[in-house]
Amino acid sequence: MNAVITGDIIRSTQLTTASQTMLIDGLNASLQQWSKDYNMRYEIYRGDSFQCLLPNEPEALRLMLLLKTFIKSLNPNDINEATKFNNTKSGLLGPNWDFDARIALGIGNIDNNSTKLGQTNGKAFILSGHTLDELKNQKQTLAIATADSHHEELQTELILLDFIISRMTALQSEVILWKLSGYTENYIAKQLGINQSAVNQRANSAGWNAINTLVQRFEKLYTYE
Fold it and tell me: Inter-axis angle of helices 170-180 and 196-206, to 10 degrees?
């Protein structure tokens, strides 16, 4: 089976042109790197939507969360962060300056393997696309649909995961992004210019233990012997 991730930026039309460009350029750069790390293919389309095809299902949830936390890490979502952000990136953001995305993961077979994702189809694409459409009428922003026996379990777990991630600040999201990438807290601290204890505090406040436990559970479910 394959994994397909489909997502779109929430309230993208309410962002200024400059902030849209900053977000999409950053997302594209990250996807380029992740395409090498995870041997995946991706496309950004309509200016605010993206899709990824992974040949290895165990890595799919981790990549889904990398996308989510990267986008949320750009948010100046408290007063102190907003002041700092606006002082360095003045004029980039409109009145609704928060970045977020709806992201759906579908796991199933694909029928063909076109060079363009838009011309590729199959159960994984159908599940991912339909699930994303359903998210647009819900408060939930992360969801999964699978063509196997794990569907019910993972649906429930993604509801809880979405609840955790929806409460992350930008600074917490930044730390979780680094930890999902496999870096140690000491390394993250050096990159962010903060103490290791601050990294640990942000990770704990963001619910890293629960997030990591679910990622490991997902990897175990889809690692075939």
Answer: 100
